[in-house]
């Protein structure tokens, strides 16, 4: 139904605003606005499609979990919050979905109740609260315009940059851009189906989608555009390096998500908002498939997540899906990821930017960690091949649909979003540059897996440690929060509750108590004559 509405709105170029007055009291009323256009309907279709596959997968993935129903309810609330964010042109109703995503993501990250999950959940919550505060400041700024419907005032925001800077900070925290990238790998403490939903089409894409809605403002601020380009390219470069030195299965895929988010932010900062939206949708398809296949592998490995134990699987259909998703991630022709990535890099070659080496080196890093995943998963002489593995048909069913769209989804979306042929003028060598990098990185990958090359990293272990820990960003960010915010209450307790304040406060109460008792004893009326005497004295003085 949503897909049919999308085709109708796309052909007619329709935009419908739906106003829902919830209640009215005197002259005050609470109104929710919803905007239906081709972009919101298409994104909503992808969110609901991937969510349905994830919920069906989760029902059998967590069938032995005692709190399975609670998990399903949390996922439903997560999807509803995303619906509010997609359909709302009003910052107040967006805030409902924005805070809903943050709150429910915290509940899902701490679903497995242990210390690691609690720490990851707290890091996720605190990182996102920075963006929430910036979002509240942006809402208060809209009081100057007399309305919270930002969609009507996009042409007026160039007068003052404060509003969009706050929106930019909120989008950077939600999409985990530098320096707020540390929470994304930590959020892998959540169950794998949640990771598939969060990292494909919901939480981390919310910031990119919000900036796509504010794309007109980017054209009026060249400094903000350059800042966003720099942050996006650094995020893409940093996460690509980290994924090549990481050994955790889910964290490698999470860092690949971070790399693609940096690419979306970068291409959005260059003014190609439709291209960023196109890559957002294609990335959602193959990344959800990649996470679901990884979850099936981890499920079969008895919850081991080290890729060095992941060889020798007898899960043939899941391995096929996993390799298709991995090839789509690195942009292999003619899979889904190729259509968006190839168009993005051809547009970059036609642009006059000076960060081109960052982008193409990041492409090489993407290919490198993609083939690294495939290599360890296909390695026969190691891993859990002695375990009796079987593929549940109920868990394979969602993979079939996602695999189908991961193969043909890119070509379909390209003709829908770009109905006219894009004019790209490049010489032959630049045209095939992406393919040259692809095959060069495949050769480099096999060279890096020789033992003699690996011995080199034994002498450069500090550099390897630096890259694998995301440039120490997680350590610095946690140290910053722990020492400046979380320990403030502990210092307050030491200095006040059990410090000198307790001594002085106790002596003050003791002094006041003794003074009150002496005062009452002095003026105590023992008999009626004392009362009369005091009344006479009072009459005389008056």
TrEMBL record:
Q: Name one GO molecular function term.
A: NADH dehydrogenase (ubiquinone) activity
Q: Name one GO biological process term.
A: electron transport coupled proton transport
Q: Which UniProt keywords apply?
A: Electron transport, Membrane, Mitochondrion, Mitochondrion inner membrane, NAD, Respiratory chain, Translocase, Transmembrane, Transmembrane helix, Transport, Ubiquinone
Bilayer topology annotation: Multi-pass membrane protein
Q: Which N-terminal stretch is annotated as signal sequence? A: none
Q: Which EC number(s) are documented for this chain?
A: 7.1.1.2
Transmembrane residue ranges:
41-59, 71-88, 126-144, 150-171, 183-212, 224-245, 252-272, 284-301, 313-335, 355-375, 396-418, 424-448, 469-486, 515-541
Q: Which domain of life is it from?
A: Eukaryota
Give start and end of each NADH dehydrogenase subunit 5 C-terminal domain.
369-540
Q: Name one Pfam family in it.
A: Proton_antipo_M
Q: What does this gene product do? A: Core subunit of the mitochondrial membrane respiratory chain NADH dehydrogenase (Complex I) that is believed to belong to the minimal assembly required for catalysis. Complex I functions in the transfer of electrons from NADH to the respiratory chain. The immediate electron acceptor for the enzyme is believed to be ubiquinone.
Protein name, per record: NADH-ubiquinone oxidoreductase chain 5
Give the species. Diptera sp. 53 LC-2017
